Task: inverse folding
DNA sequence: CAAGTATACCTAATTTTCTTATGTATAAGA
DNA sequence: TCTTATACATAAGAAAATTAGGTATACTTG
């Protein structure tokens, strides 16, 4: 993901989370959705996104379905049953991480 | 940082932030401080921390001062003037990132 | 007093996960 | 016709960790 090269490691979680919200999405759609949600501040790069999707599929968390729309191919991804569980796990893990990160960045709040 | 290999890229920010709070810290002290602040959930690995400290020093953001305490050597790090500015910048950048990440993880809140 | 744990520094090899660059192809708009 | 948008993909390189190893001193415990 571009726009600050932060948070390496959260891309798979983001993908899984979006697919919890929306049953089926294709790669390009995911890039646009993230851009929209963050008012253009996150720009997923294709070089990061596609390998991540392929990896999640290989791990059994996503299934694909190809459709032809307006003469262009779209590859739709959906969560498998395992993917659903993984989504919950990863999101929860990330949220725990963020809570702890806040404790480090803002020590006063956590100890007051 | 261990404990979930998330957030690659936030370690330098954490170090700079801690040195804003506390004038001088040495490496081992930083690992213990982070452990304490997160109730043991973040464990900085030395293989990540020391290279990060060296890099920040090489970039001119930290200065060092070695002390002998109880027969052991401690290398204290402090922010330079540039380091102080960099700390503010990095923390601000990370916080912006976290706000956007929340928008992606929790779309409902951001759009409601 | 020997052994293990804690303190305190360090580096190297490897892995993970990005960015950057490139390639293919179709559709729409200027 | 040329550029932008849509839509997929891979490969080379960089960044930033993990894992594993190394050195050394001090304290605790059996």
Result:
């Amino acid at each position: 993901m571009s726009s600050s090269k932060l948070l390496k490691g959260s891309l798979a979680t983001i993908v899984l989370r979006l697919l919890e919200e929306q049953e089926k999405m294709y790669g390009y759609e995911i890039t646009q959705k993230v851009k929209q949600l963050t008012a253009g501040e996150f720009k997923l790069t294709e070089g990061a996104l596609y390998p991540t999707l392929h990896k999640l599929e290989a791990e059994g968390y996503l299934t694909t379905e190809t459709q032809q729309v307006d003469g262009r191919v779209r590859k739709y991804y959906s969560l498998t049953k395992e993917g659903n569980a993984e989504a919950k796990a990863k999101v929860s893990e990330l949220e725990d991480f963020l809570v702890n990160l806040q404790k480090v960045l803002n020590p006063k709040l956590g100890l007051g």
